[in-house]
Design brief:
Order of helices and strands: HHEEEEEHEEEEEHEEEEEEEEE
Number of helices: 4
Radius of gyration: 28 Å
Helix content: 10-25%
Shape: elongated
Strand content: over 45%
Oligomer: single chain
Number of strands: 19
Length: 346
């Protein structure tokens, strides 16, 4: 009996001491710079945070319509195309004119990874390697079921086009007009429990049944349009500084076809409610004319096809704005971006 008691006490001591020793060993390994342990700790912390997020978000949606994508890791290869147009109208010397300008098409190849909705990517523009492209563009996107935004930073120096009207026809050569613009497009979805932007644009959610929603939109724009011949291509160096904000309402819809296809279409027309735009010419600085309504519109569309382990699709975002007064000076701007992608679920 005494020997059995001794054995039991020995086993109990091992059970109590072993976890403490393991904990000390793990801490020692971490302090000694053990990379696997550190990576495991960081991943555990991230997963714990994302688990809380998923629990909270799942309680806020109707699981008949939406479900978070079960795969934790998704890898993507994307081909991105973007471009922009400027349509300037006005009156010069008593004669009406119209200038149509277009920037060179930009094409990039990008690679992205997404872990439970957290994404990172890198893009390569082949034209940059040969020095043929002087334009720059940065796109940041944050899409949620309830709210989200696009942030677009654009610098274009390759506009070219034509000038026509009562002042005569002429060409506007490459490099004579440039534009630097920062645009923020934000949205708020009323029916976020059943309608998902991420399902169409990031594939971090799955749209199980067709659904739509009314939305609110807010756009902030700031930048400048500069020309050695004037924004109208006519006389002297001119700079048009633009600061404006628009608010509006629209509608979006997700069609689910056959359980594998997702088609998205949405539009957000907005009225400009604030504008502080100035035109600087050799003769001085003046306010840009205004005539109601000045408008901004944001359109989005997407097509996604899911397979067992793979998915393919394309997305597009189009931003248009019309500012000023065509009886004096107005500027219409169209900025678009399209993406085609193929991805794997892991």
């Amino acid at each position: 009996m005494k020997s059995m008691r001794t054995i039991a006490l020995a086993v109990l001591a091992v059970l109590c001491v072993a976890p403490a020793r393991a904990s000390v060993a793990a801490d020692t390994l971490g302090r000694d710079g053990g990379l696997p342990v550190r990576v495991a700790r960081v991943r555990h912390a991230i997963d714990s945070m994302l688990n809380r997020r998923d629990t909270r978000d799942s309680a806020r949606v109707d699981t008949t319509y939406l479900r978070r994508a079960p795969e934790r890791l998704r890898l993507k290869v994307r081909i991105n195309c973007s471009g922009s147009d400027i349509d300037t109208r006005g009156v010069y010397g008593g004669a009406p004119y119209e200038a149509r300008l277009e920037a060179k098409l930009r094409t990039t190849l990008s690679f992205g990874a997404s872990y439970r909705g957290l994404s990172v990517g890198v893009a390569l523009n082949p034209a940059k390697l040969t020095g043929e492209d002087r334009d720059y563009e940065l796109n940041l996107n944050a899409y949620g079921n309830r709210c989200g935004a696009d942030v677009i930073l654009q610098s274009s120096k390759t506009y070219e086009g034509t000038l026509g009207g009562g002042v005569g026809d002429r060409d506007v050569p490459v490099g004579s007009v440039s534009q630097d613009m920062l645009t923020v497009n934000a949205y708020y979805v009323f029916s976020g429990r059943s309608f998902s932007f991420p399902a169409a644009f990031t594939q971090s959610w799955l749209q199980l049944r067709s659904s739509g929603s009314f939305m609110l939109g807010l756009t902030l724009m700031g930048g400048r349009l500069k020309s050695a011949q004037g924004a109208d291509g006519l006389s002297g160096e001119r700079t048009l500084g633009i600061i404006c904000a628009g608010i509006g309402a629209g509608y979006g819809y997700n069609w689910v076809v056959g359980g594998k296809w997702l088609l998205h279409l949405s539009t957000l027309p907005e009225l400009v409610v604030f504008s502080r735009s100035r035109l600087t010419t050799p003769g001085g600085r003046e306010k840009m004319p205004y005539r109601f309504p000045n408008v901004i519109a944001v359109g989005r569309m997407a097509v996604v096809r899911h397979f067992d382990r793979y998915f393919v699709g394309m997305t597009a975002v189009v931003n248009t704005s019309h500012l000023g007064d065509s009886r004096q000076l107005s500027v219409g701007n169209t900025k678009w971006r399209a993406r085609m992608f193929v991805g794997v679920k892991l």
